[in-house]
Every structure is written in structure tokens, then in C-alpha cells.
Design brief:
Blueprint (H helix, E strand, L loop, with lengths): L2 H19 L3 H14 L3 H13 L3 H14 L4 H13 L3 H14 L4 H11 L1 H22 L3 H14 L4 H13 L4 H14 L4 H14 L2
Helix pairs in contact: 1-2, 2-3, 3-4, 4-5, 5-6, 6-7, 8-9, 9-10, 10-11, 11-12
Length: 215
């Protein structure tokens, strides 16, 4: 990696992460691929895996995440992401084994206990994987400017995992974008707050819509 690439790397990484955050997944993937060509380090490979995962290329993401986890097996976020990818690819036994090992080194993690329980439940793990896949599909439809189709998929996902706070928040945001009745939008944000009461973002979303409804 030359000096110009070294200087540009953090800027491009931040830009790619921003693209991923705001639903520009293909642009994010292109930048992550470029960064990996410049500097094939675990951080760049992990970001590339996230990009592929968001584009529903689960086997490709697993191929990147598996050696990263082998290299840094106690890195919790990388391990959790690897496990989620295994669930999405319906590799349930591998996901269960991974979460058990992670829990041995992170015994206080309620997230790992929850994910382990999901991976061990034949019904729950299939519903979880199907719901998450529907959410990725919906995100891609939004990127293609097909919000009504995206809404249909998110509503199907809610039917599978009704206790997913992030899902209710995203559903509320999409209903707001589509100018659904304020009461319906607030209901989704309220469910998100109830399921995750410590999440300030969900509270802000609800308060913003509520404030507008009072004018």
C-alpha cells in the first residue's frame, strides 16, 4: 500500500460505512472491495463481509468471516456477526457451536444467551433467519425505490419476529416515509421503545412524530 492509499484508507472506510448505514449497499461494497485490495487486513475483510451480508450473499460473507473468527476468536462483534450469517445460511448446528464457544469466554452476555437459545430452537431459528433475510430484502427494495414492496416484506418479517425492536423502528420509519397515518407510525415507534426502553434513537423517533402530531 503506497502513501496515498494509506492516507485515503480511513476516509474511504468511513465513506463506505456511511453508504452501508444509509442503504447504499452496492456503493459500500465497491469501496470495501477496493480497501481490501489495498490492504487485506481483518478490519477491511470484516467490513467487506458486512457489505456482502447486507446484499444477501451469505456464503461469501461466511468465507470472509470464518478465518477472521479463527484469527481473533474472542472478538465478540465479529463472532456474533459470523453466527448471524451462519443462521441466515441455515447452518444451524455451526451457529449453535459458535455461540456456545463465545459464551464460554463471555458468560455475562445476554445477547449471546439469546442467540444461543435461538440457534437451539428449530422453530425459533427458522423464524429468526427468515425474518432477518426479509429485512435485508426490504432494504434492497428501498434502495431500488420500491418502498411499498419493502413495506410488505417488513410486515411479513414482523409476523415472524414480533419482539424485534429494530424491526418495529424500521417499519415505523418506512410508514412515515410513505405518509401512513400518524397513529400507525407512532404505534411502531412505541413498540420499539417498549421492547428496547434504553434505546435513545427509538425515543427520539417517537417524540419527533408525536411533536408534529400536536401542531
Amino acid at each position: 500500500m503506497n502513501i496515498i492509499q494509506r492516507l485515503l484508507q480511513p476516509l474511504l472506510r468511513t465513506e463506505a460505512q456511511r453508504h452501508l448505514l444509509y442503504g447504499r449497499r452496492k456503493k459500500a461494497l465497491s469501496l470495501f472491495e477496493l480497501l481490501c485490495r489495498w490492504n487485506d487486513v481483518p478490519e477491511n475483510r470484516f467490513n467487506l463481509a458486512l457489505g456482502k451480508m447486507n446484499l444477501r450473499r451469505y456464503d461469501d460473507a461466511i468465507a470472509l468471516l470464518e478465518p477472521i473468527h479463527a484469527q481473533i476468536p474472542n472478538q465478540l462483534f465479529a463472532g456474533v456477526t459470523f453466527g448471524q450469517c451462519l443462521l441466515l445460511a441455515k447452518r444451524f448446528s455451526a451457529a449453535e457451536e459458535l455461540y456456545q464457544k463465545l459464551l464460554e469466554t463471555n458468560p455475562d452476555s445476554s445477547l449471546l444467551r439469546s442467540l444461543l437459545a435461538i440457534s437451539q430452537d428449530p422453530v425459533g431459528r427458522d423464524r429468526f433467519a427468515s425474518s432477518l433475510d426479509l429485512q435485508f430484502q426490504a432494504s434492497l427494495l428501498e434502495e431500488e425505490r420500491k418502498p411499498e414492496e419493502a413495506l410488505t416484506l417488513l410486515q411479513k418479517a414482523v409476523g415472524l419476529t414480533p419482539d424485534d425492536a429494530a424491526l418495529h423502528n424500521n417499519l415505523g420509519a418506512l410508514k412515515l416515509k410513505l405518509k401512513h397515518p400518524t397513529a400507525q407510525v407512532m404505534e411502531e415507534f412505541q413498540k420499539a421503545m417498549h421492547l428496547s426502553p434504553d434505546n435513545d434513537r427509538y425515543k427520539r423517533n417517537f417524540r419527533r412524530v408525536w411533536a408534529k402530531s400536536q401542531k
